[in-house]
Every structure is written in structure tokens, then in C-alpha cells.
Amino acid sequence: MKLFGIVGWKNTGKTGLVERLVREISERGFSVSTLKHAHHSFDVDQPGRDSHRHRVAGAQEVLLASGKRWALMHELREDREPGMRELLARLSPVDLVLVEGYKREAHAKIETHRAEVGQALIAPDDPTVRAVASDTAITLDRPVFDLDDTTGIADFILAEVGL
């Protein structure tokens, strides 16, 4: 599986870009999966649902399945958070995995940037950031795309990973 990351500070457009890239690259005939890192506690389940009740009761894993999809929820309890590579190994094979977050990992990535957020760019100090997608003009030693140029960014990523 090929891997490419989308990183950036909070509210810089990472999730919107990933969503558009998944659609664009999938429409080109490639299979795509995503891995998103969350820095906060999250729950994909809802209190009162059977699967939630199973987890609260102490189940280590709950596999929820229907005719449309299945989801495996694994409770870490006191265990350490698995690393990005461990999580990637759990995915079914696809042409490309887009990783949102994990900005300190060594994989190639594109940085999202919005001037109004006021954060400094990650790219100048990180050679794994191969390009920047920004809502403002930036002069940099690597490609800079308009944040809304989904086609151009998809072309760049596919070329970078050899697809």
C-alpha cells in the first residue's frame, strides 16, 4: 500500500482536503483508505446502544456488523496507543492510504495552511512535508498549491507515490 499524509494545525482544512482527495482519487479508479489521528478522546458509539453497553460492561473488542458495513471497536483501557505503522497493518490492502495527522512521523506529507489561523508553517523545518496547500500565496522551496486545488494536489500525491 502506498501512503501519503495530510498535516497542519487545527482549523487549516485538513479534513476537508482529505474528503475531497478521497473522492477525487477514488473517481480515478484507485482504492483509498484513510487513517485519522485524534488528539482527544472520541467515541464512535452512542450511549444506550447495544454495542456501547457491551464496551461499558468491559468487552475488549466489539465487532458491529450489518449488511452494509462492519466496525471493530477496540478498547485500550490502560494499554498504550498503537503507533501509526501498527494501525496501518490492520487495514485491508488498498492502492493508497491517506493519513490525516501524525505530523511527526517520517512519511511524505502535504501541509494545509490558512493565514487566519496564525500558526507558523511546519514545512520549513520538516523535509517530509513535500508541498503546502494554502489559502494565501507563500514562497517556499517546494510546491505550493491553492488549498482548493483538489485536482492539482491529487495529481501531485499520485505522482509522489508512483500511482
Keywords:
alpha/beta, Rossmann fold, 163 residues, single chain, 6-stranded parallel beta sheet
Task: Furnish the topology, listing elements before pairings.
Blueprint: E1 2-7, H1 14-27, E2 32-36, H2 50-57, E3 61-65, E4 70-74, H3 84-88, E5 96-100, E6 109-113, E7 129-134, E8 144-146, H4 150-161
Parallel strand pairs: 1-5, 1-6, 2-5, 6-7, 7-8
Antiparallel strand pairs: 3-4
Question: How would you describe this structure to a colleague?
Answer:
- There is one protein chain.
- The protein is of the alpha/beta class and about 160 residues long.
- The protein has a single domain, classed as Rossmann fold.
- Helix content is about 25%, strand content about 25%.
- The chain is built from four helices and eight strands; from the N terminus they run βαβαββαββββα.
- The strands form two sheets. It has a six-stranded parallel beta sheet. The chain has a two-stranded antiparallel ribbon with strand order 3-4.
- A hairpin with a 4-residue loop joins strand 3 and strand 4 (about 70-75).
- Helix 1 (about 15-25) packs across helix 4.
- The termini are close together.
- The mean pLDDT is about 95.
